[in-house]
Design brief:
The structure is a single chain. This protein is an alpha/beta fold and 156 residues long. Helix content is 43%, strand content 13%. The chain contains five helices and four strands; from the N terminus they run H-E-H-E-H-E-H-E-H. It has a domain of 106 residues: Alpha-Beta Complex (Spore Coat Polysaccharide Biosynthesis Protein SpsA, Chain A), CATH 3.90.550. The protein is elongated.
Length: 156
């Protein structure tokens, strides 16, 4: 009987220690969420893979922090890009899709986003470069050193 009491006491002590540990970890610094703004035009070959990979990285596998808002703005595509993004926006709740001109962009979209916004222009960048830049920004680490940044980020 005494052995059972010792086992229960040790189990209770273990539970108390893990509760205190979780409570202490809850005070860690949580960086502010960063919003991602993707500018697209005639990118039907790359947008679906880009946003599916972003969803996998941030929301399903948990390898990267979830961004605040992800907005894809189509700037007058003549291909299937708007249809693909509309379908993805209904499939993924984190993705918001808008169609507008470049003139409307600064007046309508930028005020909606918080101060921390990364603009990724897929008219200039490849999908791989945009994904690498988003991954670098969303890494789960307390601070980033300039030497760890991808080389493509300098072109932003």
């Amino acid at each position: 009987m005494e052995t059972l009491l010792w086992i229960l006491a040790l189990f209770g002590l273990w539970q108390l220690a893990s509760l205190i540990w979780r409570w202490l970890l809850s005070f860690r610094f949580v960086p502010p969420q960063v919003s991602l703004l993707f500018l697209v035009k005639n990118n039907q070959d790359s947008v679906e893979g880009l946003f599916r990979q972003l969803a996998w990285d941030c929301f399903f596998s948990g390898r990267y922090a979830a961004p605040g808002r992800v907005v894809a703005v189509d700037l007058g595509s003549k291909d299937q890009t708007p249809a693909i993004l509309r379908r993805l926006a209904t499939e993924y709740s984190f993705l918001h899709f808008r169609t507008m001109t470049e003139e409307q962009l600064a007046a309508e979209i930028l005020p909606e986003l918080s101060l921390g916004v990364l603009v990724l222009d897929l008219r200039v960048l490849s999908a791989k470069q945009a994904l690498e830049a988003a991954r670098w920004l969303l890494q789960k680490r307390p601070s980033g050193k300039a030497k760890d940044r991808p080389a493509q980020e300098a072109s932003f």
